[in-house]
Amino acid sequence: MARKLRPDAPRVVTANRLRDGVVVYRTAAGAWSPALDDAHVVASTEAEEGLLRACTADVADCLVVGLDVIEVQIDAHGAIAPISQREAIRAVGPSIALPQDRAFAPLAAPA
Amino acid sequence: MPLLETGRRVRDRWTHLSDTDAPPDEAAPVTVSLARLTAERDALLARPGDLGVRLPNAAAVADLVGLLDGDTNRLGLIVLTFPAFKDGRAYTQARQLRETHGYRGSLRATGDVLRDQFFFMARCGIDAVEVDLPESAAEAAWRSALDEVRSVYQPAADGRTPIDVLRRHTAPGREVAA
Amino acid sequence: MYQYDAHDQALVDQRVDQFRDQVARRLSGDLTEDQFKPLRLMNGLYLQLHAYMLRVAVPYGTLSGDQMRVLAHIARRYDRGYGHFTTRQNIQYNWIKLEEAPDILADMARVQMHAIQTSGNCIRNVTADPWAGVAPDEIEDPRVTAEILRQWSTLHPEFSFLPRKFKIAITGAPNDRAAVKVHDIGLRMHRDPDSGEAGYEVIVGGGLGRTPVIGKTIRRFLPKDHLLSYLEAIMRVYNAHGRRDNIYKARIKILVDALGIDAFRDQVEAEWQALKDGPLTVPAETYAAIRARFALPPYDEGLTGSVSTLRLDEAADPALARWIRANVAPHRVPGYGIVNVSLKAPGQIPGDATASQMERIADLADRYSLGEVRVTKDQNLVLPHVRLDDLPALWRALDAADLASPNVGLVSDIIACPGLDYCSLANARSIPLAQALSERFADMARAQDIGELHINISGCINACAHHHVGHIGILGVDQKGKELYQITLGGRSDDNATLGKVVGPAVPADRAVELIAGFVDTYLAIRHPGERFIDTVARTGTAPFKETLHAAA
Ligand code: SF4
Q1: Residue where one domain finishes, among candidates C60, C92, C109
Q2: Measured between alpha carbons, how far is C370 from B131 in angstroms, rounded to an integer?
């Protein structure tokens, strides 16, 4: 998945939290957040390597799995959005309305 | 690397020769590669010391059996290899050796051998494993791996009675909880 | 349905404890992800796009009402209130927490269910004809064989680390409703022409995915007692010689193709000589004992009639009549019908059911179908034993739960994999296209006029939705970041299994909807009386449809 990015492309580190699988992003404070907007954006290969190195302890400590680097873009208001559709869906959830569990009227007694 | 035989740590009494090493002495138990066994078959079989072979997992068991004139028990040890735990070819080799060719010597697993595959290995007739085992506590964990699942459906090389056979020998209404 | 005995139950319980320990060791760091991954996969647990996904085995697609209620409970307690029935007759949950997975398996074990071998490079859960035991054309109930295979393959010591996954399907009737020619091994029950004895035709090396292949017959007639020894011989040749250097060439179909079916058969025969008549022999008493554990349903005697001769009062209740015509099939017992429950209401996500819908189905199964439900490879459900005089009441109850779409086997009964909305392997989304198509064809009267037509949509070349054998097949592709769909025509998975042919270049989703609408119009214009879509394509080839392509361009 980790494709070669342009050397100066903005990017963030993502993973899944081990215990519940939730998609998380690496923050500047060295924590993990489910919100992409909390992610620490870096824009060079060296910074990416540094960021990944900082994350490896959390992999070893079983906090997260499946480290990946993804390319993002930042709009005028500072909001972060992934470039690929896959990562966009991963960030915000399925593109479809999820089934809503609603109760039905009880079955009528058999005739 | 430490060796577990039927789940207990033992000293390896075998010398594993490269293709050029001479055996330490005539009586020493040695293993050789399949290539060396093929090349020096007569001399190796004529030695008084026990002989073992290291079998690559791509080798055909039938070829080894042919080399031994059908008698696998001329060997005291066959070393099987798991280059990665996901590569399961040696399970087939183990069962062919035990069940098709009546091999009674030791079958040893080497390579990427993990606790959670030990159950499958034992069922296929592997009785010894070379594992990276730092603490003695882990030894008990390896032995317990064989008891996690006690009910089995298949006949295999470990002599466990498959469920179907248990059923056929249990009167209805007197089912045995495993 | 099959009732566990104490042995079956013990194994499943032991397996739950074992997995609980494995999860604890993973969470504490004793196991690395690399070491843990095959262990969780063998318990059906994937890490998908958004979370863990749990795939629960529904062996040969048969469920009791109580089991269905537990599936609903899992959806509500551990997931987001719904589940997805798959083309492998399983159910998947999309929002599972690793730390809760052992509790889920324990809840399932209480109703004789498990997730064993729903993933991983092992023998997967065996699929069978969803009408097993009730279809009039059946030779023998294939579920007895499927259960014997389930037991044999469960934690198989030799075949748990195969080169690749391995899928077996069985049909008990001459009309293949289990797609046996596109499985690694397909079994077709038939009778030996000379002795009249029932046995199996064994088909090997079929499959879809990147390299779609129609399986070849390796043995015309295998007597039933040799079932396991012969299959063990096939598996052994595959385990020893299947490719492990390239994941795309690791399925048995590639090995069979490389050796040629005759050389492959010779190797299997050689291996079989060592196994035949040994401990793997399945005695008739084992078949009988397993059959006896399928407490067969107590039908009401003295009923008459069949759905095919049922007089429908169109004027009084046209919707009910339409539903019966589309969704109810003949049962082998007089006075009963097989009710297909569509999970494909227009705009619905194919195969998804909410917890309340599952509970409703469970209640209706208990009330009207002798407590039994089936899951089909077309992502629908079946209530297999319904008295014909219960049909109106059942229909009303289904309708109140959005479960009475009269479209089974029709154009809007679209088969779609989860695609990029859930699946980490996907190239494109499948569900939105399925929704758009089912809305386009929402007119049920018109759908019945169009007749039988299977549309299958896969989000990538892994072909989970079997697009190669869809009458209209759709494959999602990613071309330089653009989500496009490649369309095939003329595929089928029945006795005359055929792979569809590509028509035109890949197109965006909205254009795919227009093209398919055009293909259907073309069919309506050129069909002969009584000719199904697939028959027309077989007669004319794709040429007239390609004209649609240009006309619509
Ligand atoms: S076909 Fe591809 S996208 Fe669809 S479920 Fe299978 S692997 Fe995922």
Answers
A1: C109
A2: 54
